[in-house]
Amino acid sequence: MSETARARCDAVVVGAGFSGLHMLHRLRQAGFNARVFEAGSGVGGTWYWNRYPGARCDIESMEYSYSFSDALQQEWEWTERFASQPEILRYAEHVADRFDLKRDITFDTRVEKAAFDEEACRWRIDTDGGETVEATALIMATGCLSSANLPEFEGRTSFLGETYHTGRWPHDRVDFGGKRLGIIGTGSSAIQAIPIIAAEAEHLTVFQRTANYSIPARNGPLESDYVREIKSEYPDFRARNRLMPAAFGSKGLTRSGAPALADDPTAREARFAERWERGGLGFLGAYNDLLLSRDANETAADFVRARIRDTVKDPEVAERLCPDNVIGCKRICLDTRYFETYNRPNVELLVARTHPIERITPEGVLVKVLNSQTGEREGAREIALDCIVFATGFDAMTGAVLGVDISGRSGRTLLDAWSAGPLTYLGLTTAGFPNLFMITGPGSPSVLTNMIVSIEQHVDWIGDCLEHLRRERLATIEATSEAQDAWVDHVNAVAGQTLMPTCNSWYLGRNIPGKPQVFMPLIGFPPYAEKCAEVAQNGYEGFVLR
Ligand code: NA7
Question: What is the pTM of this model?
Answer without folding.
Answer: 0.98
